[in-house]
Amino acid sequence: MGDKGEIKETSELTNVPIRTVCRIVSAGSNHLPRKRTKISFKRIDNFTEEHVRRTIYNFYLNNEIPTLREIYQSLMRSETGFEYSETTLWRLLKKLGFKYGKLDERRTVMESPRLLLLREKFINKIRLRRSAGKNIIYLDETWFDTHDTLKKVYTDNSPSCTTKAPCSRGKRLIILHAGGEQGWIPGALLISSKHLKSSSADYHEDMDSGLFEKWFTDQLLPNIPSSSVIVMDNASYHSRQIEKIPSTNTRKSDFLRSHNISVPEKSTIKSLLEVVKNNYFEKKICGR
């Protein structure tokens, strides 16, 4: 035990109770509480970090799964090498922003070359119309089941943790609306209900082109300026065919002649289908 004066002075300087100081002195230096050292990445330079990042990206380019072990082995086999342990690599991946989790497959589809091109065309068209001062209107639809309840809650599974959930499935509400920079379009809100027993698992199938066209002509068009640009997705009910394109089992010659396309009197089914395929037949956009 040290001198009482020294212990008191140490307590005052460190703002630690005297009893705690006495206990530490009695226990000796081997029992002093150790601070957990924070791992530093100062020794790992930017070149190595970028090398690790490129290695992971190459896995995806080759359509391979980048697990920690696979990444580490790939780094060790590379010309640059990797002089750190697998545990250090794991910590470095966290520092670089990589997380081990479920892969978002939708992102793969959204970044496909075809959709990238379509996205670029869409952005260019929107920019062109904005620069022309056009009023741009966006429309979309969603759904809500009236008897929906939260699936996850805090509960101890006792009778006290129950709700008065309705027994029936209720109705499905289809909500359709449009808006732009100025807010929602007045009078354009449509709420359509349908019993869930007769509803589809996909709410898109509960809409049809007739309902959409009626809303488009009666509630949307009268409430927006005539020079507006309307943006919508390619849901099946957003457009409908004026005439059904002939198939193998339907008459094709009469259909083609009605569109001023001449065909020989005696033509094979295959040749007529080829003519149908090589010609564009207008689709009517609902509401136009």
UniProtKB/TrEMBL annotation:
Gene3D superfamilies: Ribonuclease H-like superfamily/Ribonuclease H. One of its GO terms (molecular function) is nucleic acid binding. InterPro entries: RNaseH_sf. This is Transposase.
